Amino acid sequence: MTKFSDLGLAEILLRALDREGYETPTSIQAQAIPYLMQGRDLLGIAQTGTGKTAAFALPILERLAAEPRRPAPFTARALVLAPTRELAAQIADSFRAYGQFMRPSVGVIVGGVSHRPQNDMLARGLDVLVATPGRLLDHIASGRMRLASTEVLVLDEADHMLDLGFIVPIRQIVAKLPKKRQTLLFSATMPKEIAGLAQDMLNNPAQVSVTPVATTAERVDQHVFFVDGGAKRDLLIELMNDADISRAIVFTRTKRGADRVAQHLDAAGVGAEAIHGNKSQSQRIRALDSFRKGRTRVLVATDIAARGIDVDGVSHVVNYELPETPEAYVHRIGRTARAGASGRAISLCENGERPLLRQIEKLTRQSLPVTDRRSADQRHDDAQPARRVPRGGAPKAHAHAGARNASKHPRREGHHSDGHHPAGPRPARPGNGQKRRAFGGGNRAPQG
């Protein structure tokens, strides 16, 4: 079995790893660190939760320790680009933890906060700068950040940055960097746009892959509930009454929906907070800290936060609304079953979301177990064959037509973004022979 000491890391880093409780490297760490210690560029395919932050942070810290020098004002020796504020903050915390006995200067540049403290920090020069692309470009344009002497560039969650429209800003940032540098690109998936970016940016890279593209975590027990749209909120409350749920993340598609779901949970006595792009940085930090420390049991989030939430002990993920892109499902459920633990993922699927479910099953190459909690009337309607439209008459609406329309316009179903139908919920009934236990049976998830 490979040990961290076998990877050639300095004693000052091994001591920090020991204090942090790291015993053996993960697969991505064991594969990537030797290449990076040689100074090679790297293309890594790895989902979140595989230990990739340490895979790139440790070699960078090793490089800084081997060649210690004070960075010039408004420069950074290493630059890490991340898609979200939460992920940027967590990466910076990891650098500080692994470098606790060498104390590198580490800074974070993100939007949503004042420029002045960031300007003051940049003026001192940094060993490691972790930034989101948009705010970093602001500082470059104002002359408060210069990249001509940066030695290492890391693009973390490159596919997520593509989803958020950051490819053009990334190329603008790369144009400011020296051609002679070490470049690392990590992505959970490899769409053609990312492959093209890697080809343009990387020089003869080593390639490592620890998880097949677009597969879900093996330790996540996944389940789907078919439910009437108006009954989603009541079913969510029922799920939250399950004693197995020690810490849960509930995902919605919209910011407004996240706020509504969090308010509904709070009103039902389930402690919940929402986190999304309309929240200020201080609000997002406060909500994450409360969730991480167990003061809040449920965090309601949008997809922009799906890869930025790295909290141990998330026992359950609930997809209150299925995501519009199937890849987002993979990253949502990756918030549980981290660090070797197991976890559960439950999806609430109404009729209009059935095409989204089929896309997820096609991408992940698996059929998800289902419990039908729809009303008897809805199950009966869905089972009826499609009827011909009478000549000169209007077509009758039925579930199959709604599902076809939803594939093009998944939210034109007359319901609000939180799944609450304006006409009011129908009472949900269990399907024949189905247990009423919230997660459809199965093994109990570990606590904490």
TrEMBL record:
Pfam families: DEAD, Helicase_C. Residues 397-414 have a biased composition (Basic residues). Its EC number is 3.6.4.13. One of its GO terms (molecular function) is RNA helicase activity. Residues 231-379 form the Helicase C-terminal domain. The keyword Hydrolase applies. It catalyses: ATP + H2O = ADP + phosphate + H(+). Keywords: ATP-binding, Cytoplasm, Helicase, Hydrolase, Nucleotide-binding. A motif (Q motif) lies at residues 2-30. One of its GO terms (biological process) is ribosome assembly. The keyword Zinc-finger does not apply. It is an enzyme of class 3 (hydrolase). One of its GO terms (cellular component) is cytosol. Residues 363-448 are annotated as: Disordered. It comes from the Bacteria. Signal peptide: none annotated. Residues 439-448 have a biased composition (Gly residues). Residues 371-385 have a biased composition (Basic and acidic residues). Residues 2-30 form the DEAD-box RNA helicase Q domain. Residues 33-208 form the Helicase ATP-binding domain. Belongs to the DEAD box helicase family. This is DEAD-box ATP-dependent RNA helicase RhpA.
